[in-house]
Write a structure and sequence with these properties.
Blueprint: E1 3-7, E2 34-44, E3 47-54, H1 59-74, E4 84-89, E5 98-99, H2 113-116, H3 125-132, E6 136-137
Parallel strand pairs: 5-6
Antiparallel strand pairs: 1-4, 2-3, 2-4
């Protein structure tokens, strides 16, 4: 696993029913480069608690989560007080999925890539990144 991605202040509890197909556990259209996801990772009185969404949460990945939390705290983020989602990927691909309306969005946006790309089956991750360069959102 070359990289880790944390979706800060996200839990799937608030949008499980509308979670994009590429993030649903047990679905065939999970991009192959997303190899594991731990959701609702949080600190409790008993230490760190993990809920695995899909894939395997190894001791190495738990350490990467701990390192990411430490790094976030060192950069001024209050990561310990709320649940977070962490995605382990083989590789990141550059893309440019542009917002075309003025002003910053309110809250978090979750996109169903099958709708954005108008397809029932998602292509490989690199192709998704390329296709998103031709798409916009508002």
């Amino acid at each position: 696993c070359d990289a880790i991605f944390s979706s800060y202040s996200q839990t799937t509890n608030s949008f499980d029913s509308s979670l994009p197909g590429h993030l649903k556990s047990g679905r065939n259209n999970v991009p192959p480069d997303v190899i594991a996801a731990a959701r609702d990772t949080s600190f409790t009185d008993n230490g760190m608690q993990y809920e695995v969404e899909f894939g395997e949460l190894t001791e190495e990945r738990k350490q990467k989560i701990a390192d990411a939390i430490i790094d976030g705290v060192q950069h001024g983020y209050d990561i310990k007080s709320s649940k977070h989602r962490y995605f382990f990927v083989e590789k990141f691909y550059e893309t440019d999925f542009k917002k075309i309306t003025p002003r910053a969005p309110m809250g978090t946006r979750v996109f169903d890539l099958t709708q954005v790309l108008e397809t029932g089956n998602l292509p490989e991750t690199q192709e998704i990144a390329e296709l998103l360069k031709t798409k916009t959102w508002s």
